[in-house]
C-alpha cells in the first residue's frame, strides 16, 4: 500500500488504517528526519443512509505513537451550520469518541464536516462525510382545511431523486377518521432503484382517485366532492430495510347549515350553524360575521369548540371563517333571504286562524260537555220515574 517517489523522496501510503499510525523516519547519509503520523477514522452509522426521524451516530477513533490528546469535535451540516452534539468518550485513553444526533430530517441530506481540534499537539483536521436522509419534504404533521362538497388533493413529496437514492423501497397510504380508529389502506406503492414508481389501489369502498403526477417523487390522491366523514388522518409510510418513516396530513372539513331552512318570514328567527369535523388547535377558531354588519353581528367559537351558532332575525349575507393565527384558511357564506310579504301575511293569518280554530274547538268541547251532562241528568230522572211506576206508586194531584 506504499510507494516512494525517487525524485522527491516522498512516501505515499494508500488506504490508511489506524494501525498505520506511528513515527516514520527518513535517513539520508548522516541526516535523519522523523515524522509522527496521527490517523483518524470516522464511521457513520447505517452506512450514511437514514430515514426521517432516525438517529445519526458517528464514531471517531484516533491513533498515534504518543499519548492521545483530548479532542475538541465540532460538526457542520450540509448548510455549513454548526450542529450541537456533545461527544462522549468510549474509554479513558481518548481513543474513541461517539456523537449522536436525534431526529434527522429530509433537509439534512448532503455533505457534512467533522472538525477535529487539539492544542497539543496542534491538530486542525476536517473530515467530510455524506448523509442521505430518505423522507418527506412535508412537515411531520400537516393540517389541511377544506369545505364540504369541494375537491381535495392530498400530496406527499419525497426526496429520493434529489439525494439520488439508488436503492428501491416501498410504501403505503392509510386513512383513519380518528386517532383511535382502525386504519384503512387506500393504496400501496413501490419505487425501483431507477426511480420508477408504481401505485396499486387497495380500497374500493372509499371514493378517491389517483391522478397522474408530473413527478415520480410525489404520492398524490384526489378526493372529489368530499363528505363530512372523509375527514381524518391520511398517513403516508415509507419502508426501507425493515425500517419505517411516515408523514401525516390531517384533513379538517367545514360546513354551514340553517334551522329552519329557507327564507325567513318577517318577525321569525333562524339559527345558523358553522361546524368543523374535528376540534381545532388552540391557535384556530370559527367566526360568524354579517357582511356590512357591526361588531354585534360577530360570533366566535370558544377554544377547541367544533361549532358556533348565531341567531338571525333579518335577511343578509353571513360568512363563516376558519381562522388560524389571524390567517383566514377557508370561508363559507350563507345568504339569509326574507320571505315575500304574502308569505309573511299567510304565516300571520295561519297563526291567527290557528289560534281562532283552537279557541273555537275549545268552546265547542265545553258546550258539548255541558249538553252531554244535561242529557245525562234527564236520563237519570226518567229512569227514576219509570222505577216508581213499576213499583205501583201513584201520584195524587191536589183537588
UniProtKB/TrEMBL annotation:
Q: Where are the transmembrane segments?
A: 342-372
The family database entries (SUPFAM superfamilies) matched by this protein are listed as: Immunoglobulin (SSF48726)
Q: Where is the Ig-like domain?
A: 267-331
Q: Which Pfam families match?
A: Tcell_CD4_C (PF12104)
Q: Which organism is it from?
A: Cathartes aura
Q: Which InterPro entries match?
A: Ig-like_dom (IPR007110), Ig-like_dom_sf (IPR036179), Ig-like_fold (IPR013783), Ig_sub (IPR003599), Tcell_CD4_Cterm (IPR021963)
The cross-references to Gene3D superfamilies, in alphabetical order and at most eight, read:
Immunoglobulins, transmembrane domain of human cd4
Q: What is this protein called?
A: T-cell surface glycoprotein CD4
What keywords sit in the KW lines? Membrane, Transmembrane, Transmembrane helix
Amino acid at each position: 500500500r506504499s510507494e516512494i517517489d525517487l525524485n522527491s523522496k516522498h512516501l505515499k501510503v494508500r488506504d490508511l488504517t489506524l494501525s498505520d499510525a506511528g513515527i516514520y523516519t527518513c535517513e539520508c547519509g548522516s541526516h535523519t528526519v522523523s515524522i509522527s503520523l496521527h490517523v483518524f477514522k470516522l464511521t457513520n452509522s447505517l452506512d450514511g443512509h437514514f430515514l426521517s426521524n432516525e438517529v445519526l451516530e458517528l464514531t471517531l477513533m484516533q491513533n498515534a505513537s504518543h499519548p492521545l490528546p483530548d479532542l475538541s469535535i465540532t460538526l457542520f451540516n450540509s448548510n455549513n451550520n454548526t450542529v450541537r452534539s456533545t461527544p462522549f468518550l468510549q474509554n479513558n485513553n481518548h481513543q474513541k469518541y461517539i456523537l449522536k444526533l436525534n431526529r434527522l430530517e429530509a433537509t439534512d441530506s448532503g455533505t457534512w464536516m467533522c472538525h477535529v481540534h487539539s492544542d497539543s499537539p496542534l491538530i486542525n483536521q476536517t473530515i467530510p462525510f455524506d448523509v442521505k436522509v430518505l423522507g418527506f419534504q412535508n412537515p411531520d404533521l400537516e393540517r389541511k382545511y377544506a369545505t364540504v362538497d369541494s375537491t381535495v388533493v392530498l400530496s406527499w413529496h419525497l426526496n429520493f431523486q434529489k439525494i439520488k437514492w439508488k436503492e428501491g423501497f416501498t410504501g403505503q397510504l392509510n386513512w383513519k377518521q380518528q386517532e383511535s380508529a382502525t386504519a384503512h389502506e387506500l393504496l400501496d406503492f413501490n419505487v425501483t432503484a431507477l426511480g420508477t414508481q408504481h401505485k396499486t389501489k387497495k380500497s374500493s369502498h372509499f371514493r378517491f382517485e389517483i391522478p397522474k403526477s408530473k413527478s415520480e417523487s410525489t404520492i398524490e390522491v384526489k378526493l372529489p366532492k368530499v363528505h363530512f366523514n372523509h375527514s381524518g388522518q391520511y398517513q403516508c409510510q415509507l419502508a426501507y430495510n425493515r425500517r419505517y418513516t411516515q408523514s401525516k396530513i390531517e384533513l379538517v372539513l367545514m360546513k354551514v347549515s340553517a334551522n329552519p331552512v329557507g327564507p325567513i318570514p318577517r318577525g321569525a328567527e333562524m339559527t345558523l350553524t358553522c361546524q368543523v369535523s374535528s376540534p381545532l388547535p388552540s391557535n384556530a377558531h370559527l367566526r360568524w360575521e354579517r357582511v356590512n354588519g357591526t361588531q354585534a353581528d360577530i360570533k366566535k367559537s370558544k377554544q377547541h369548540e367544533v361549532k358556533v351558532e348565531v341567531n338571525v332575525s333579518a335577511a343578509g349575507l353571513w360568512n363563516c371563517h376558519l381562522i388560524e393565527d389571524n390567517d383566514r384558511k377557508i370561508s363559507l357564506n350563507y345568504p339569509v333571504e326574507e320571505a315575500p310579504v304574502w308569505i309573511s301575511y299567510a304565516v300571520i293569518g295561519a297563526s291567527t286562524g290557528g289560534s281562532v280554530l283552537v279557541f273555537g274547538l275549545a268552546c265547542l268541547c265545553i258546550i258539548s260537555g255541558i249538553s252531554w251532562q244535561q242529557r245525562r241528568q234527564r236520563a237519570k230522572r226518567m229512569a227514576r220515574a219509570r222505577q216508581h211506576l213499576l213499583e205501583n206508586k201513584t201520584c195524587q194531584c191536589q183537588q
